[in-house]
Design brief:
Layout (H helix, E strand, L loop, with lengths): L1 E7 L5 E7 L5 H21 L4 E6 L2 E6 L5 H20 L4 E4 L1
Parallel strand pairs: 1-5
Antiparallel strand pairs: 1-2, 2-4, 3-4
Length: 98
Amino acid sequence: MIKVKIFFQPDGRISGFDVSGHSGEDIVCAGVSSLTDTAFLGITEYLHREVSYDAASGKLRMELKGSPDEQTESILQTMLLGLSAIAEAYPKAVRILK
């Protein structure tokens, strides 16, 4: 099972995420990886925000070093929408923890 932990600030904005595990279904792993990797790249390469992160096989943890803003929130909420759709379609493969 893939577990996704979303980190929220007191104001409700997303400040990061932690993804770990494997689902046993390649399409699910590919979908989750695509969404989380794209969010990471959007924040670091496009928005040029500083983050702390740890990446390994089957794991990605990313946290903003600064406060979330409208741009980071747009990227991370879009990631969460996509992950939620995957979790709904494959409930035995993905669990989202908030």
